[in-house]
Design a protein that fits this description.
79% of the residues lie in helices and 0% in strands. The radius of gyration is 19 Å and the shape is globular. By secondary structure, it is mostly helical.
Length: 140
């Protein structure tokens, strides 16, 4: 009888950890893709990036700086190893996205239905989820 209980317990733990790992990778890959595409868009000055930056009062070279950091950060999130670097990337993404939301709020540039404010905050939330769900091998 104790073997059956032990097997059930192991099965539950395995399913929970597997679900957590799937959720972690889903959040992390979505975050990395969003940050990578955003960085590439800023580097190539696609879409409304120029208008977005000038509406906030920032110089255009900020797009190049942020674009480079976003591309490098998204790569660092998915590359195996380097747990300290990943901690810094998560911190950087959090400060970047909350800073972007605040910049839009202070400039009264909310966009359509608050898009310019809500999008960076949703990326910040995705970042927190990815960080909180990271496996032990990615913790310091």
């Amino acid at each position: 009888m104790s073997k059956i209980i032990g097997v059930e317990t192991i099965a539950k733990v395995d399913i929970q950890s597997r679900g957590k790992m799937i959720t972690y990778w889903t959040a992390t890959l979505l975050l990395a893709a969003a940050v990578m595409l955003s960085g590439i868009g800023q580097l190539m000055q696609f879409g409304g990036n120029i208008e977005l930056v000038t509406n906030l009062g920032y110089p255009l070279y900020v797009m190049t700086i942020l674009g480079i950091w976003k591309v490098l950060g998204s790569i660092a999130l998915v590359v195996p190893g380097y747990p300290r670097l990943k901690e810094w990337v998560h911190a950087g993404i959090f400060f970047l996205m909350t800073g972007a939301a605040l910049s839009h709020a202070f400039a009264n540039d909310y966009g359509d239905n608050g898009f310019n404010f809500i999008l960076p905050l949703s990326y910040a939330a995705l970042n927190i989820a990815s960080w909180a769900l990271r496996p032990k091998s990615r913790k310091l």
